[in-house]
Amino acid sequence: QVHVKESGGGLVQPGGSLRLSCTTSVSISEIYLMIWYRQAPGKQREQVALMMKSGGTHYAEFVKGRFTISRDTAKNTLYLEMNSLKPEDTAVYYCNAHNPWDDPPDYWGQGAQVTVSS
What we know:
- Helix content is 0%, strand content 50%.
- By secondary structure, it is mostly beta strands.
- Strands 2, 4, 5, 6, 9, 10 and 11 form a seven-stranded mixed beta sheet that branches.
């Protein structure tokens, strides 16, 4: 069983920056995949960025060059640094821990609202 909790959402102006945090209840280094998703009103949830257990990363095209995923293993915390924010980045951002050997394999946080508006 893995518990995850996001923090750091808020209101920011276009072009601004924000950092989301996701804390896990177990060693983050042992989790197979840590993934940031987002869901905008009226839209499906979409994957934003992920970090593998090895530390490898992958980004959705629409955030490449603007968002950075990282982790602090001592704090069991995953981060999403978001720069050059656009109004279309407005969404609820969710942290997901995925362990394919667990049943169910996915653990979700409660979500963090990010609003980009002037």
